[in-house]
Design goal:
Blueprint: E1 2-8, E2 33-39, E3 42-47, E4 55-58, E5 63-66, E6 72-74, H1 77-91, E7 98-107, E8 110-118, E9 125-130, E10 136-141, E11 151-154, E12 157-161, E13 164-167, E14 169-172, E15 175-183, E16 200-202, E17 209-210, E18 212-216, E19 226-235, E20 238-244, E21 252-254, H2 255-258, E22 267-273, E23 281-292, E24 295-305, E25 315-317, H3 319-323, E26 326-330, E27 335-339, E28 353-356, E29 365-370, E30 373-379, E31 387-390, H4 392-395, E32 406-409, E33 415-418, E34 420-422, E35 425-426, E36 429-430, E37 435-445, E38 448-458, H5 460-463, E39 468-470, H6 472-475, E40 478-483, E41 488-493
Parallel strand pairs: 20-25, 21-24, 30-39, 31-38
Antiparallel strand pairs: 1-2, 1-15, 2-3, 3-4, 4-5, 5-6, 7-8, 8-9, 9-10, 10-11, 11-14, 12-13, 14-15, 16-24, 17-27, 18-19, 19-20, 19-23, 21-25, 22-23, 23-24, 26-27, 26-40, 28-41, 29-30, 29-37, 31-39, 32-33, 34-37, 35-36, 37-38, 40-41
Length: 496
């Protein structure tokens, strides 16, 4: 079966702003579409909104998704469990699912039975079923999560073959999608196969190149100094300085830098990004060649946008730089080295630890113990300051071994108890909601205890029930080897 849906802007939505001059070369295109190729539980979805390489699917053994470069990651943990449930509902393959009644409710003027459906290894979804037709009217993922859940409203069904009915249209928080084509036919293996990466590494050197391990004044005097790693690279031969940010899913180039390139980057589509606020910033997608430490990453998709993240930063190097190489960063020697993962393996010396990382979000996710509670976080080299976790840990009382204040010294005086709130700044601007910060006894990051540490608790409406960032306050004490092709990040204590 092949289904093609087209995005239609909600008539009640705010009209899109007039494109800025640096967006004027974005090609005008038809409304975004996505196509689903399905054979039973197996499927592949191709989204035309950004690039044809941004896809997702299920092989029969694993759920996966790929970025604008065709770099593909396997989904794990919550992302995989959500995909299990969504796929079961989309395919109608619900045998073995746990189904319970949750009463009745009127949705969109239709009397519905509410069912709680939990497929094996999936999350729970609440489904409003039309009593008259048996069709789904609304699907809400993880309805008991008070912070983060997705819902879709189905606006009727269409019969595309005898006895085969599919949603004629549906709405999500991203807009409305209408069926423009539906066919029942055999789907080939090729149509179920994900993309091959479009960038290509030329590994010409294993020599190290210098980095800047920078220290800067924090926004508040009682915070420790901020830390960051700036790397030197070329874009189509033009040198620049970039923040190395493992928390970024893209390579982001600021237009103030790309405007200086001898040849303008060719736009291949639209893109965007968001930071700690979750605010989406529109941008354009282009391709470029990145040179670093004597090696070249050719034909890589980059996001180009206005703005900046410091006067001395030309952009941010994130997941696409790390996805296909072995990237070794020594804060001790202040160097970076790029190696072919097909020829080299990371060295794990005594005291080092190879963290298995969950790359479902294109960020290195880990489990983290805060007191007696286990939560999730991302190793984020772009977070210059403290560890940040969801404040649901304190709201739910899962973490109670916290003081209400931090022991700090103000203006050189004696140390006193002081409770403070912070407003952090991300690539999408400063946070609008303060994050309460206080000192806790211990975090456990893999085999490493992190003791008597100031930690910030960000709104669960941003991070969800479990989520957070492990930033440079912790990461500065290690050298890093990114081995994303093998799903690992090696941390080696450096004595700093």
């Amino acid at each position: 079966m092949v289904l093609r849906y087209r995005y239609e802007r909600d008539a009640k939505a705010t009209p899109p702003p007039t494109p800025s001059p640096d967006e004027a070369d974005i090609p005008k295109s038809d409304p975004p579409e996505f196509t689903v190729y399905r054979r039973g539980a197996l499927y592949r979805e191709v989204n035309s909104h950004t690039s044809p390489w941004a896809q997702e699917g299920f092989t029969g053994r694993a759920f996966w998704h790929s970025d604008d470069n065709g770099y593909t990651v396997v989904l794990y943990d919550d992302a995989a469990r959500t995909a299990v449930t969504d796929n079961a509902l989309d395919s109608g393959l619900l045998a073995g699912a746990n189904v319970t009644s949750a009463g009745t409710k009127t949705e969109n003027g239709v009397l519905c039975d509410l069912l709680r459906i939990t497929p094996a290894e999936g999350i729970t979804a609440e489904v409003a079923v039309d009593r008259a037709t048996g069709g789904f009217v609304k699907i809400t993922d993880d309805p008991d999560d008070p912070y983060v859940h997705e819902s879709s409203t189905i606006d009727g069904y269409k019969e595309i073959a005898p006895g085969v009915r599919v949603p004629a249209a549906y709405k999500t928080r991203n807009g409305e999608f209408k069926l423009v084509e539906g066919k029942v036919r055999d789907v080939t293996d090729a149509e179920l196969t994900g993309p091959a990466p479009t960038p290509k590494w030329t590994f010409a050197s294993t020599a190290t190149a210098p980095i800047d391990f920078v220290t800067f004044t924090p926004p508040y005097g009682f915070l420790p100094p901020g830390k960051a790693v700036h790397i030197h690279a070329t874009v189509n031969g033009t040198p620049g300085t970039f923040l190395l940010d493992s928390g970024a899913a893209q390579i982001l180039l600021y237009s103030k830098f790309t405007d200086k390139l001898p040849t303008k980057l060719k736009t291949i589509g639209t893109s965007g990004f968001s930071g700690i606020n979750g605010q989406h910033v529109s941008a354009r997608l282009a391709r470029a060649d990145i040179g670093i430490a004597g090696n070249t990453l050719s034909n890589v998709a980059v996001t180009v946008a206005k703005g900046g993240f410091g006067d001395d930063i030309d952009g941010i190097m994130g997941y696409p730089l790390l996805a296909g190489a072995l990237v070794d960063v020594s804060l001790t020697d202040k160097t970076i080295r790029i190696m072919d993962p097909g020829k080299y393996e990371p060295e794990v010396v005594k005291g080092a630890y190879a963290f298995p990382v969950n790359l479902s979000s294109l960020q290195p996710g880990i489990s983290l113990r805060v007191g007696s509670a286990v939560t999730k976080a991302v190793f984020d080299t772009g977070d210059s300051f403290l560890v940040t976790v969801s404040d649901d840990l304190t709201r739910s009382k899962r973490v109670v071994a916290l003081t209400d204040s931090a022991r700090v010294s103000l203006d050189g005086g004696a140390a006193t108890d002081f409770q403070y709130n912070l407003f952090f700044v991300g690539v999408d601007g400063p946070t609008q909601v303060p994050e309460k910060c206080s000192r806790i006894t211990q975090l456990q990051v893999g085999p490493y205890p992190y003791q008597n540490v100031e930690t910030c608790f960000a709104p669960a409406e941003v991070f969800g029930r479990d989520g957070g960032l492990v930033g440079m306050d912790f990461l500065q004490h290690f050298n890093w080897t990114f081995d994303y092709p093998d799903g690992k990040l090696v941390l080696t204590p450096n004595g700093i």
